[in-house]
Specification:
This protein is α+β, with helices and mostly antiparallel strands. The chain is 41% helix and 20% strand. Bound molecules: adenosine-5'-triphosphate (2 copies) and magnesium ion (MG) (5 copies). One magnesium ion binds next to loops. One adenosine-5'-triphosphate binds next to strand 1, helix 1 and helix 2.
Length: 256
């Protein structure tokens, strides 16, 4: 485009390139989802349909941005991990955050009716986003462990809270009853008063969702119409522990 007298305003834009050589995490989180879940009468403590919609929205991000190595989701949030070597959008924070947020949000809205066919979408879901750099793999793993521990703590608390509320207690009394209780107390309460074995609650709720790319054999139709088998990268949603070493040893390509 021809230069104009107004061109100089471009120099007001600030450089927001993320540090080179660091892992990048882009995290999105639903705005006011406590209210949003009430408004849409989602199941408590965990609505599996809404979680599956979150996973589908995260898959769309991974398909649109092949540089994303791994994603971890729980509740109304998802974290997307980019490797230290990524050059995507020159590592510009605002480009990366805004594109991930809009891809995620647009997919969430576009596919809502597929996952919650009985529930009309009554308001506009919004997600915030941030970018954080982590200087090495150890800190990146601590970040992911932090999110998965959060999943566990919230899920155990919410399992107890909603068991009490569904059992007839009012919400303030249920919070009061759980104040200061240890994990062991909560496990015991669930088991002795409600017959719920915490470890039998679905892994999706206890462990969150981890999205990765895996090599897999897929059936492909050849030009002559016959079927063959080919190795391809495919997206996979796992509900497993990512705190211990086993997951990382099983998937070394994630951190190469
Ligand atoms: P903020 O705008 O600050 O993020 P928020 O209300 O979204 O506010 P969060 O800390 O993000 O607060 O918590 C998310 C809320 O959404 C929690 O109350 C959580 O229980 C609820 N929630 C998220 N996903 C589900 C789901 N699939 N089923 C039931 N409840 C959910
Ligand atoms: P980038 O991802 O870098 O933004 P881009 O293809 O979106 O790439 P832009 O500089 O943003 O590039 O240009 C927007 C393009 O979309 C132009 O080609 C413009 O003509 C076209 N476009 C946008 N809105 C309309 C519209 N309402 N009708 C027709 N063409 C449009
Ligand atoms: Mg929040
Ligand atoms: Mg939120
Ligand atoms: Mg949240
Ligand atoms: Mg433009
Ligand atoms: Mg454009």
């Amino acid at each position: 485009m021809a230069k104009s007298a107004y061109e100089y305003v471009r120099t007001f834009e600030q450089d927001d390139r993320l540090l080179p050589g660091c892992w990048i995490v882009l995290r999105v989180d639903g705005k006011g989802f406590t209210r949003f879940c009430e408004e849409h009468k989602l199941e408590k403590p965990n609505d599996g349909r809404a979680l599956a919609l979150m996973d589908a929205s995260a898959e769309a991000v991974m398909l649109a941005f092949p540089d994303v190595r791994l994603a971890f989701g729980e509740s109304d949030e998802y974290s997307f991990v980019l490797p230290p070597s990524t050059k995507l959008y020159g590592r510009r924070a605002s480009k990366l955050v805004s594109l991930v947020v809009s891809c995620f949000t647009a997919t969430y809205v576009r596919r809502w009716a597929e996952f919650l066919p009985e529930t009309p979408l009554l308001s506009t879901p919004m997600f915030d986003g941030r970018a954080v750099c982590y200087p090495n793999l150890a800190v990146l793993r601590d970040y992911l462990s932090w999110r998965q521990v959060d999943t566990h703590i919230n899920n155990l608390y919410n399992a107890c809270f909603w068991a009490l509320v569904k059992g007839g207690m009012d919400q303030a009394a249920a919070h009061e009853r759980l104040k200061g209780t240890l994990s062991s107390h909560k496990n015991e309460l669930l088991f002795s008063e409600y017959g719920i074995n915490y470890n039998e609650i679905p892994a999706r709720f206890r462990k969150g969702s981890t999205l990765i790319r895996q090599r897999a054999e897929v059936r492909v139709k050849k030009p002559d119409g016959s079927w063959g088998v080919r190795e391809k990268w495919v997206l996979q949603v796992l509900h497993v522990d990512i705190i211990g070493n086993q997951f990382w040893e099983e998937h070394p390509h994630l951190v190469e």
